[in-house]
Amino acid sequence: MSLDAIGQTLPEATEKGRNPIGAGLFWALKTIGVWLALLISTIVVTKLLPVGFPLPRQDGPFNFQQAWLLVNGIWAAAIALVAQRARVRGLRLVLLVWIAFFGSSSFMMVFEELYFNASLHMTMAQVFGLSGQFAVEALLVAAATALLFRPAAEDPAPLPSWMTARIVVLAGAYVFLYYAAGMFIAWQSAAVRAFYDNGAHIEPVSVLALQVLRGFLWALIALFVVTRLKGSLASRAAVMAVMFAALADAQLLFPNPMVPWAVRHVHLVEVGTSEAVYGIVATFVLLAGAARRPLSATNPWRLIAERG
């Protein structure tokens, strides 16, 4: 069986109800392939581009090796889900997976790492070195994913009007969910309050400005990804919820000498909840009431101007 045939088996079986057991097996095997690509790329990139970050001691339920296997397994499942439901293939699928993976797991976290560095105590070389490593790893994994998953290309998803307004609404929604989750989940923990009160010097106005910026960037990532997924609004919302929650949250399972487990496990619930809800909200805000005339998704950043 060719790569094209294997890559198309799961989506076709899922949508048309044919051979679900075989389709599920193919999907599981390809997910294992993505997991292996994640593990291998980490080893290769850390050898070629060392950052000098010390291997942390265990301070939670998993040591570093256990967390490494588990986190990459979670990431692999999320990436495979996105690739399975993609309406693009080849180099466009590489770009889709790279933006979804690197954007959600590393790029969007750099802003908070820099802002809260009074508590984290990371050097700039560590912050940008680790992000650079991850960018290369994500590109290698995206290329491997595009070889494993070769879905049939479909027309671009139709988009509604008022895209600029929808992006603004989504930025506001992200800020609301960020503060709501922080207030009702994270800040209820005495360990979290003590950690961030110890030298963080948080300024409410600057934190708000930071989260508004991150809200716009999250909205653009959501726009890029969701327009390249096929299926109903509900199915795409489910994919976005899993993708954002898994890719943004799973690395908190790693032992971390700067953020103790007593703080990280609270953030696991907080971030996972807010990101999953945001993925659902983003899908419906961006795509509800889509026009019948499909627009080109070749250059997604042009979509805002075209439909704003």
Description:
The chain has about 300 residues and is mainly α. The chain has one domain. The protein is built from twelve helices and no strands. Helix 2 crosses helix 3 and helix 2 runs antiparallel to helix 6. The longest helix has 29 residues. The protein is globular, with a radius of gyration of 20 Å. The N and C termini lie far apart (about 45 Å).
Structure characteristics:
308 residues, globular, disordered C terminus
Short description:
With 308 residues, the protein is mainly alpha-helical. It is 72% helix and 0% strand.
- What is the tally of beta strands? 0
Largest sheet: none
Count the domains.
1
In the predicted model, the low-confidence regions spanning at least 5 consecutive residues are: 1-17, 291-298, 304-308
- Strand composition percent: under 5%
Helix content range: over 70%
What's the quaternary structure here? single chain
Tally of helical segments: 12
Which structural class is indicated by helix and strand composition? mainly alpha
Q: What best-fitting shape do the alpha-carbon axes yield?
A: globular
Kindly state the mean pLDDT as a whole number?
85
Order of helices and strands: HHHHHHHHHHHH
In angstroms, what separates the terminal alpha carbons? 45 Å
Radius of gyration: 20 Å
